[in-house]
Amino acid sequence: MVWDGALRLVHWLMVALVPLLWWTAEEGHMDWHKSFGLTMFGLVLFRLIWGLIGTWTARFAPMVQRIGSLNIYIKKLRNRDSGATFGHSPLAVLSVFALLLALTAQVTTGLFSVDIDGLESGPLAVLISFETGRQFAAVHELNFNLLLALIGLHITAIAIYYFVLKDRLVEPMVTGHRSRADFPTSDLPENRLQLLPVIAAAALALACVIAISNFG
Amino acid sequence: MNRCKLQFMLPVLAGFALLSACEQTAETDVVSETAAVELPNGMTVKEQIEARQGHLKKIGKAFKAISDQLKAGSPDLAQIQTAAATVPTEAMGMNDWFPEGTGPASGIKTAALPIIWEDKTDFNDKIGAMQDAAAKLDSIAQAGDVAAIGAAFKTTGGTCKACHDKYRKDD
């Protein structure tokens, strides 16, 4: 088991939500945009908590350590050897951190954004002035482009692994599994999903979402 | 070698310099000329555009104040009433804010689309609808029924959008 069920569910829900959020924003379906946005906020929050108390491949601390072997990994890639990594490769760590940072910035600025007419606003925009809310909206729009670029990079990388390195990375993100034989060492860390942390992380994320949606 | 390069570069550089100079003078001239043009109402184009943007921004602010209170568990009626009262005042005379020549062709930054002046009757109808809705919102706000205020606020917002969707550049 490389990717636990909770992580996969969150990942694919995010994949579904990004285009929905984009479309609802473009078409001005702001009620839907706010509901989807709040859902996305909950997912991002869960993922961040999961990075602290989740399974080994989801946790941030081992991911940060992986960055140390970035140079060696890139050298391997140059030799057309993707060298299956249990969890995130050193390069993937950077990608995931960038994506999570952009997502966090996106959902946070959304909470405070105000539209140009003052008619629509995020649940926390009550706390700030019209002008400041407009600035949040500007960052919200700008950062979305950054997010799109990072998503594009992410998909491109998956495609390069698939076509050039013959490494199918989507499969484990769907099934959660990858053959033990693919990894250079059989000494893999314990990575099983445990019920208590999942419930704790989900409850905490949900509580924050409810608190924010009822704010005011 | 150096001379060769220089000989080749000089006309190119001169061309660039000339081009950029032309462009600059042309652009700034047009902008400053139309911006300073005096409209029949005595304002310059720039003043007119900035004045309407100022009014609309104040309406946006008032709307945010109302929507903030409507979102709250226990809305502050006094704040809603103050904000609702500013909307009809700020929207007064809106038909006169868009005289001919105050579109994007003036060179001044404005989201007003040129089709405003192609269908001025419809544009003014939509302004009228907004002003009516805003007046109603104000009187309902002063009466103090929060649910009714919420409905009137939605209606007023709809009249804003009806116009903006058609006559304002997407931001």
CATH level 1 class label of the largest domain in chain B: Mainly Alpha
Query: So, CATH architecture of chain A?
Result: Up-down Bundle
Helix fraction bin of chain B: over 70%
Helix content of chain A: 55-70%
Quick one: CATH superfamily of the largest domain in chain B? Answer: Cytochrome c/b562
The first-to-last residue Cα distance of chain B is 52 Å
CATH architectural grouping of the largest domain in chain B = Up-down Bundle
Tell me the radius of gyration of chain B: 24 Å
Catalogue the unreliable spans of chain A. Answer: none
| CATH topology description of the largest domain in chain B | Four Helix Bundle (Hemerythrin (Met), subunit A)
Provide the fold topology.
The complex is a heterodimer of chains A (216) and B (171).
Chain A lengths: L4 H23 L2 H24 L6 H7 L3 H9 L11 H23 L17 H34 L6 H6 L19 H19 L3
Chain B lengths: L1 H35 L8 H27 L5 H14 L29 H24 L2 H22 L4
Helix pairs in contact in B: 2-3, 2-5, 3-4, 4-5
List keywords for this structure.
heterodimer; A: 216 residues; mainly alpha; Fumarate Reductase Cytochrome B subunit; 0% strand; B: 171 residues; Four Helix Bundle (Hemerythrin (Met), subunit A); 2 domains
Please describe what this structure looks like.
The complex is a heterodimer of chains A (216) and B (171). Chain A is mostly helical and 216 residues long. Chain A has one domain: Fumarate Reductase Cytochrome B subunit (Up-down Bundle). In chain A, 67% of the residues lie in helices and 0% in strands. The N and C termini of chain A lie far apart (43 Å). The model of chain A has no long low-confidence stretch (mean pLDDT 95). With 171 residues, chain B is mainly alpha-helical. Chain B has 2 domains: 36 residues; 129 residues, Cytochrome c/b562 (Four Helix Bundle (Hemerythrin (Met), subunit A)), CATH 1.20.120. Chain B is built from 5 helices and no strands. The N and C termini of chain B lie far apart (52 Å). The relative contact order of chain B is 0.11. Chains A and B meet through loops of A and helix 2 and helix 5 of B.
